[in-house]
Amino acid sequence: MRTELVWKVGGQQGEGIDSTGIVFLNVCHSLGYHTFGYRHFMSRIKGGHTNYQVRVATRPVYAVGDQTDILIAFDQESIDYNFWELPSGAFVIADGFGAKLPEERGVTLAEVPLTKIASDLGNSLMKNMVAMGATCELTGLPVEPFEKFVERQFSRKGDEVVKANLEALEAGRKYVRERWGQQAHFKLEDSGSTSDGRLVIEGDYAAGMGALAAGCRFLSAYPITPASMIMEWLAVHFPKVGGVVIQAEDEIAALCMAIGANWAGARAMTSTSGPGYSLMQEAIGLSGLTETPVVIVDVQRAGPATGLPTKHEQGDLNEIIYGSHGDIPRIVIAPGTIEECFYALAEAFNLADKHQCPVIVAMDLYLGMSRGTTPEFDLDRVHIDRGALLSGADALAKVKGQFERFENTPSGISPRVLPGTAGFIHLTTGDEHQFDGRITEDPKIRKAIMDKRLRKIDEVDYPGLSVRGSLPADIVLVGFGATTGALWEAADRLNADGTRAAVVQMTRLWPFPAEELSAALDGAGSVLVVESNATAQLAHLIRSRIGGDLLPTLLKYDGDPIRPGEVEMRAKEVIADVSGARIA
Amino acid sequence: MSAALVSPKSFVSEERPTWCPGCGDYGVLQALQRAAAQLGLQPHEIAVVSGIGCSGKISSYFNAYGLHVLHGRSLPCAIGVKMANPNLTVIAAGGDGDGYGIGGNHFLNAIRRNINITYIVMDNQVYGLTKGQTSPTSAHGFKSTTSPAGSAENPMHPLRLALANGAGFIAQGFSADRAQLVDLMVKAIQHKGFSVVNTISPCVTFNKVNTYDWYRERLHNLDEDSSHDPSDRASAFAKVMEHGDLVRGLIYAEEGPSYDEFVPGYTTSAMADLVKPADRKLIDKLMAEYR
Fold first, then answer.
1. In sequence order, which ranges of A4-126 are alpha helices (DSSP H)?
2. CATH topology for A200-381?
3. Helix A144-154 crosses helix A159-180 at what angle (to 10 degrees)?
4. Domain covering A465-576: architecture
5. Which ipTM score applies to this complex?
6. Which of A523, A562, A568, B259 has the most neighbouring CB atoms within 10 Å?
7. Given this model, what pLDDT does residue A584 score?
8. With an 8 Å Cβ cutoff, is A146 touching chain B?
9. CB–CB contact B283 A261 (8 Å)
10. pLDDT tens-digit series, residues A343-383
């Protein structure tokens, strides 16, 4: 009996591959398993290979699997594309297209005429349901949740459709049982739990829900993969709370609208990916200089330019940390799990309000589009802090007559009064200005107000790191974003092998938690920085902030997410050759 | 709080304008101050969102909440302001380079979005603050430091663009005719939806061709033209074509539903009042979709 199973379905885009994957994932979730689903797709609507990998386990999983145990292939391309990750003992269920395995490796080829069975039952589209039946049989999972899914999904279409799909499900089971019943060794241990208290959700949707919970009521954005799902989610749910989604003409407008809305008192945000983030650079400076809060989510994808628009990368880091001309205060936070997306967004709005500056939430495609089991979100962990925003007659009366919008306070944070308030008229300008807001070019004031703005982020109440494992360790794995899950898993395996491994997840990238990181790395046998880009942007950032040599790295920039096995292997190399620092 | 009586002076800020003596922008500023007073608005009820250039300085000189943004970006910022607080009267302002060059895309999309703001463009057919370069509305052949042999490009036709793209309120004013400009601004602010007032605002320093006199000789006053019907888009287009865009007065006005009427669940309360702890029942319901 297994405690884990990796299943994948592959075919041409447009033939229901994703929805098939999600059905299997949801069924496993409902049975109390932990799941993690990753969607591999191309930048086109119809055609082109696509696949959906579902990892199912009796313990929490946060990364794609290193290998695939069961592959459902609707075409030869799905076999050829994914064969490298099929270990000996894996099972390929191939539709009736005359499948061939590229080589003999102990992989079982099970030809199941999925489409033909479905057609014989009345509709070739039910081939996915036949595949579900075959999967059910191979994994030994109970059939009831699959049946329940069919009833729920198709009841609106009438009893006939439900009945036909149930038959398709049963036909798939029967076909596999009769031919490979004895060989089916993919039986999963009972999950030992239920799905109570858990959700199964994508990172982008969790982020959208976090924003809504934080009181965000305005999102202006331009559609872009892999961030559109945030916009689409809020477009559905904002009407319930008086919120608005505006589809802007470009990302410049998107950020400017969000800045305008924040200035007028809303909690407002924009969401984008690399190309859009690049267009936003000037307006990020506007938020910084005018001390107008704004939250920007960058769900990174593979660049540069249009790059690999449907593939994962973490190559925007430099731009997120340094982008926009001139010097501004900014805060950059980076959730690493689907659950963290919810809380990061909820807190981003507090940080923006408290520090009156842009807050960038660095996500990535792997995090935003992956669907996985996650604990329910806890509203007790969400609170609203609007910082120095003055409202109400008493608060306003105290400062009336002496109000300076950009007052030079010790913390640098100045009281804010919203437009529409009588008696507090002021100018907010993207030109350099005096403490009362009026434009100036006076060198002394320029220096003083620049210093004031920059010191606003001297103290930021958001954790810099999240450490898993005990320190000091033989090796410390460092990363951010969705890479975190692969690091945790690699560390678990190293620890099981007797190597003391720990993980440092960078949860705040700016202001950079230099002291905390130095302390965490102090005494480490070796350190490995793992990131999804070609030029070691995180490793360089670390060196620039804490000094020393460039740390050894594992860099992946082929568009696919980093897998736990890759981290484990590279970690062993680094441990074996502590001096083996590779510079990208 | 009882509303204080307002006069044009209520909208004069402490900041002294730095525009050149004779600049058309003075007339635009004064007209806007008079229009605001005529409408009985309080200074704190208005937000002036301006772009960059000589024209963009209007938010410094007009006494109201001012948001002076980036070159070309007054419209998207103003849209955010209005949607976040529909109780504010929002005026976006800028010049021809700001609005029709670098910000042109926002102009086109603001029109079709039809959010209830007023856009005042101070059009002088030249870049002033950067000292005399060719602008999107400069005439073909216009000589400047960036087109010493004369501009090879044809000018933008903002009025025709606005008409073609479906704007619900389009007017062109002349900063030298204060009374008409005030009237157009009042109507524009009262118009529900997006309103644009393109204002001929001569640059006395860098445009020696399109001078006050040049315009005076050519501008056809549509408000006194009995053959002009501002409720007829096609004939308004023909009028603008007939006079080569050199018209002043109300060009077209027809009120239709504005953007907010199509946003489900949109309320008229300021969004600042919607920032409160999340409704547990709602979040629970949202999570239920993922259980």
1. 17-30, 76-82, 114-120
2. Rossmann fold (3.40.50)
3. 150
4. 3-Layer(aba) Sandwich (3.40)
5. 0.98
6. A562
7. 41
8. no
9. no
10. 999 999 999 999 999 999 999 999 999 999 999 999 999 99
